[in-house]
Specification:
By secondary structure, the chain is an alpha/beta fold. It has one domain (about 5-215): Rossmann fold (3-Layer(aba) Sandwich), CATH 3.40.50.720. Helix content is about 40%, strand content about 20%. The protein is built from 8 helices and 9 strands. It has helices at about 15-25, 55-60, 75-80, 85-105, 125-135, 160-175, 190-200, 215, and strands spanning about 5-10, 30-35, 45-50, 70, 110, 145-150, 150-155, 185-190, 205-210. The strands form 2 sheets. Strands 3-2-1-4-5-6-9 form a 7-stranded parallel β-sheet, sandwiched between helices. Strands 7-8 form a two-stranded parallel ribbon. Helix 5 (about 125-135) links the parallel strand 5 (about 110) and strand 6 (about 145-150).
């Protein structure tokens, strides 16, 4: 009988919603804990939703234990309202969750980053993603898996103009993305989520592993 537990943060997002479903369907987990700002529409006998405003994470996480942590947190500068607010979510919140869960004995941390993430990037978005990756690497997880999807395909609650245009044009330029450009191919958000849950059970179970979109597809 399995006793493995999973914690997911960001379950209300595009990838997070699919990831939550995949976790609940996975017989390897006896319990799935979701940190959320409000009740989720998803219900399952193994699902435990913990409501938090994320300002009291230390207190909330002190009562949580999980083997695998799935971090699907992510926003856009437009939605966040400012670069500072974006950094608070995509860097500070991610790193805080990783640090606190490591103290709680979590063995594996899986986090959604972005294709092109680089702490030395001139672009703010990719630089923050790269800085987040480096910070999480320094926490010392037995196993850290960084997922770097390209443009995400899937139905969002909010419309993103850039993604909408890119989705329409994808069939035209997708055939030209091969070789070193293959990692830039758009990928279905559902595929990213299912990939995350799959690799959580794969070998090797130690070290730092980075996965690009080409591997997900």
């Amino acid at each position: 009988m399995t006793t493995r537990k999973a914690l997911i943060v960001g379950a209300s997002g595009l990838i997070g919603g699919y990831c939550l479903q995949a976790l609940c369907d996975d017989p390897k987990y006896s319990e799935v804990i979701a940190l959320a700002r409000k009740p989720l529409l998803k219900t399952h006998r193994n699902l435990n939703v913990v409501i938090t405003n994320f300002n009291n994470l230390e207190q909330i996480i002190a009562s949580i234990s999980a083997n695998d942590v799935y971090c699907c947190l992510g926003t856009t500068i437009k939605k966040a309202g400012s670069q500072e607010s974006f950094r608070m979510i995509d860097y500070s919140l991610v790193v805080t969750v990783a640090e606190l869960m490591k103290k709680q004995g979590a063995e594996q941390f899986l986090v959604v980053s972005s294709v092109g993430a680089d702490e030395k990037s001139k672009g703010f978005y990719l630089r923050v993603k790269g800085e987040m990756e480096e910070a999480v690497k320094g926490i010392g997880y037995n196993c850290l898996r960084i997922i770097r999807p390209s443009l995400l395909l899937g139905k969002r609650e909010e419309f993103r103009f850039g993604e909408g245009v890119a989705t329409i044009l994808t069939p035209l330029w997708k055939p030209f993305l091969f070789g070193s450009l293959k990692k830039y191919k758009p990928v279905e958000a559902e595929s990213v989520a299912q990939f995350m849950v799959k690799i959580a059970h794969d070998q090797p179970v130690s070290g730092v592993h980075v996965y690009e979109s080409a591997q997900i597809v």
